[in-house]
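[Q] Does anyone have a clean structure-token version of this?
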Amino acid sequence: MRTIEWKLSLKTSPEEVYAFINSDEGRANFWAESAVEKDLFINFQFINGWEYQSKILQRIPGKLFQIDYFNSEVTFNLTKNSHGGTDFHLVNKRVAQDQFLDVLPGWVSVLMNLKAALDFKLDLRNHNASKTWDHGYVDV
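[A] Here you go.
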């Protein structure tokens, strides 16, 4: 098992970032085609047809959001930076060795979409089921 860590600097405040990742609409704006929460589970639906029921493990408004994600543990830590924005720190623990080389760049794609959505109000994804990560496209 491996651990992945990425950091992202955002112009958006930790409170706004948390509200975004903690909402169905926010998650659908950068991460999945749909990510609806019900009874502490998020039903992630992706453009390539994948689906995952993710359990919410911990939430601290404005500071932390943690979930089970494809049998690993993902934590988003939010810290206010000196400019009033957010230093966003992703830690993905228990990533299977045989999935590591797919998951590592996958998070870069998700995080850059998060930055585009929050700081620039853009969606970088193509939303085309015939042009997914599985087909070599990074704008998924």
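[Q] Thanks! Anything notable?
[A] The beta strands are 2-10, 34-38, 41-45, 51-60, 64-69, 72-80, 86-95.
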